[in-house]
Specification:
161 residues; mainly alpha; Single alpha-helices involved in coiled-coils or other helix-helix interfaces; Zf-an1 domain; 4 strands; 5% strand
């Protein structure tokens, strides 16, 4: 009885369809486990690629007819006005941007502080009083308060009651 079950098991074994030399099974379409996993991955990738193609075609917008050709050229010029490459060089002029304190010319690197006046300063000169900052903080803060806090008026009827 043992000989018949072993002979049936040996006859059920089929070599992998992909030809890698391992045995496959009917559950994995006569492929070994490695080839079957690779097969599944390629199917998933193909399905997602088809879905993405369908989505990208459905969401494309036609060009805006209201913009004239001169508007397009202005937009292109504005977008490429100043670009820095990976080394920190300005692509237009070739000069390196400075990472030095505006007052003492000390190298600040990553520890530099950018002030609201637009300049870069070291830890000593980062405060507005230390570098005689032309930025008007008082006016700036008042404008913010005016925008955020609206005028509160009392009811006219409160005086009559």
């Amino acid at each position: 009885m043992d000989s018949t079950t072993t002979s049936n098991a040996a006859s059920d074994r089929v070599l992998c369809v992909k030809g890698c030399g391992f045995y496959g099974s009917e559950e994995t379409k006569n492929m070994c486990s490695k080839c079957y996993n690779h097969f599944l991955k390629t199917q998933i990738i193909d399905k997602t690629a088809k879905k993405l193609e369908g989505l990208s075609l459905a969401h494309t917008k036609p060009p805006n007819p209201s913009l004239s050709s001169s508007d397009h050229t202005l937009l292109e010029q504005d977008s490429g006005s100043k670009t820095l490459n990976a080394a920190g060089f300005d692509s237009d002029t070739g000069s390196r941007w400075k990472s030095r304190c505006k007052n003492c010319n000390k190298k600040v690197g990553l520890t530099g502080f950018k002030c609201r006046c637009g300049d870069l300063f070291c830890g000593k000169h980062r405060y507005a009083t230390e570098h005689s900052c032309p930025f008007d903080y008082k006016k700036f803060d008042r404008e913010i308060l005016i925008k955020e806090n609206q005028l509160i008026k009392g009811d006219k009827l409160a005086q009559r009651i």
